[in-house]
């Protein structure tokens, strides 16, 4: 495939949280139209709202694969083998490009299950894909440079992309895909603190979220190290260092590090091959 990605027909197999967020993000980017994208799931009633946005919805994976050239696999790891078994006859190694967002499943796992040397690119986005702010990690051991570039172009429309070695995909899952939940929980915790010191819940949440956005934007815009930016906030004998040290005594950094390590281990164990 050498043409640009927005000329392709895309089938997203598994219209759950990630599949739908991807579909919406692609259309929101303005580079894809709803009518280029088919979304499947077994309970298609849950996708009914998407029809008005121009998406095709169906529970027929085989037909969706037949009519697409880019096939995104977005089911849970424990649902993968059943799905692959059901589309095996439709997958054409010469004409299809597979993109898998399934955590803990390697390119080889997919080609072995399909028993076809189809090109597979693994993509690990996060849910900010719905607003074009994903950090998406990409890896493949069998896709051509052109097809990797095609997938990069597709995910570049919905955030930032980085190409990594496939063995780091489980780490990327923990840091970026699970990571968004870790940062969301810290914002929630900050807002709870904010309410305890005088703000209504909604305003505390808004203030905490904008503060977190500012912190991330500072690092991305300047390239500065977080500790350098923290040093600018912590006045001697001041209230910031008092709060920060209290958090560290309670294990703040350690909790984040341990959580990310456990997530990465778990991400590597999510897929158990079925017979
Ligand atoms: N959520 C996230 O933030 C991220 C998730 N991922 C990965 O993306 C994948 C999907 O996760 P997520 O969206 O959260 O999970 P969901 O459970 O929300 O979505 C999975 C979807 O797959 C559908 N499905 C299951 N079996 C089939 C089938 N045979 N044919 C068609 N559709 C099917 C389910 O619907 P139904 O039961 O109606 O068929 C469901 O809607 C996972 O592998 C996860 O590891 C990766 C990065 C981030
Ligand atoms: O929690 C999970 O297993 C999935 C993978 C990454 C984000 N959600």
TrEMBL record:
Keyword Amino-acid biosynthesis on entry = yes
Q: Which residues hold NADPH?
A: 61
Q: Which Pfam families does the record cross-reference, listed alphabetically?
A: F420_oxidored, P5CR_dimer
E.C. numbers: 1.5.1.2
- Keywords carried by this UniProt record: Amino-acid biosynthesis, Cytoplasm, NADP, Oxidoreductase, Proline biosynthesis
Tell me the ranges covered by the Pyrroline-5-carboxylate reductase catalytic N-terminal domain, including all copies: 9-103
Q: Which residues does the record give as NADP(+) binding sites?
A: 13-18, 74-77
Biochemical pathway: Amino-acid biosynthesis; L-proline biosynthesis; L-proline from L-glutamate 5-semialdehyde: step 1/1
Check the record and name the InterPro entries matching this protein: 6-PGluconate_DH-like_C_sf, NAD(P)-bd_dom_sf, P5C_Rdtase_cat_N, P5CR_dimer, Pyrroline-COOH_reductase
Q: Which residues form the Pyrroline-5-carboxylate reductase dimerisation domain?
A: 166-266
Which GO molecular function terms does the record list?
Answer: pyrroline-5-carboxylate reductase activity
| UniProt entry tagged with the keyword Cytoplasm | yes
Spell out the subcellular localization from the entry. Cytoplasm
- Where is this chain primarily localised? cytoplasm
Instruction: List cellular component terms (GO).
Output: cytoplasm
Q: What class of enzyme is it?
A: oxidoreductase
Instruction: Please indicate which superkingdom the organism of origin belongs to.
Output: Bacteria
Which reaction is catalysed here? L-proline + NAD(+) = (S)-1-pyrroline-5-carboxylate + NADH + 2 H(+); L-proline + NADP(+) = (S)-1-pyrroline-5-carboxylate + NADPH + 2 H(+)
GO process terms (BP): L-proline biosynthetic process
Family membership, please give it: Belongs to the pyrroline-5-carboxylate reductase family.
Q: What does this protein do?
A: Catalyzes the reduction of 1-pyrroline-5-carboxylate (PCA) to L-proline.
Name of the protein this chain belongs to = Pyrroline-5-carboxylate reductase
Gene for this protein? Answer: proC
């Amino acid at each position: 495939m050498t043409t640009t990605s927005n000329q392709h027909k895309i089938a997203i197999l598994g219209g759950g949280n990630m599949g739908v967020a991807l579909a919406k993000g692609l259309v929101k980017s303005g580079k894809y139209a709803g009518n280029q994208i088919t979304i499947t799931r077994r309970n298609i009633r849950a996708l009914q709202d998407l029809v008005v946005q121009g998406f095709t919805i169906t529970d027929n994976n085989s037909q969706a694969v037949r009519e697409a050239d880019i096939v995104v696999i977005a089911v849970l790891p424990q649902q993968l083998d059943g799905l692959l078994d059901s589309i095996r006859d439709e997958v054409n190694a010469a004409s299809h490009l597979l993109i898998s967002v399934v955590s803990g499943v390697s390119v080889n796992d997919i080609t072995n299950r399909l028993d076809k040397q189809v090109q597979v690119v693994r993509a690990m986005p996060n849910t900010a894909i719905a607003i074009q702010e994903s950090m998406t990690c990409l890896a493949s051991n069998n896709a051509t440079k052109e097809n990797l570039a095609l997938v990069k172009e597709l995910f570049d429309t919905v955030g930032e992309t980085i190409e990594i070695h496939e063995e780091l995909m489980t780490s990327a899952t923990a840091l970026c895909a699970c990571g968004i939940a870790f940062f969301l929980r810290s914002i929630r915790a900050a807002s709870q603190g904010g309410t305890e010191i005088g703000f209504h819940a909604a305003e505390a949440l808004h203030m905490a979220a904008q503060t977190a956005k500012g912190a991330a934007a500072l690092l991305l815009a300047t390239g500065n190290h977080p500790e350098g930016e923290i040093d600018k906030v912590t006045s001697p004998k001041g209230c910031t260092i008092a709060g920060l040290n209290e958090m560290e005594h309670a294990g703040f950094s350690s909790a984040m590090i341990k959580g990310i390590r456990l997530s990465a281990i778990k991400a590597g164990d999510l897929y158990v091959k079925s017979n």
